[in-house]
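Standup notes
- DV: blocked on the single-chain target, sequence here:
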Amino acid sequence: MNPVLEIEAESGVVEQGTQSGHLENARGRIYRDGVLRARFSARSVDADMAAQRVFARNNVVVESAAPEGLTLRAREVEWLAQKNRIVAMGDVMFVQKDRETGRVVAEGGPFDRITVDTSLQRLTIP
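- DV (later): unblocked, structure below
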């Protein structure tokens, strides 16, 4: 079975049967089809593994892993695994760097909302 999500936290409560719960000062990894797609950190995370949904808030940072180079910062981020979507909300800033040179090729914000389609590797600003 391929991993979908891995989370480490300083504290929190997780129900062993459902692998769902609330975590504080968390760091994690998001996978799609067994491939690491992104890393994230947040002060507060609520995970519902049955719904394959993670809601992170307070100083959220998401960094793409495949492909590399995109960093999102926001007040809140919702990850919807079944929809291959990451939704960043509240004072969203993004930086896209060239994978080879590390130079900034695009940046923007603050925005109210940005949606990232992890299957198409596309970022949408409404």
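- Follow-up: DSSP finds no helices and eight strands in the chain.
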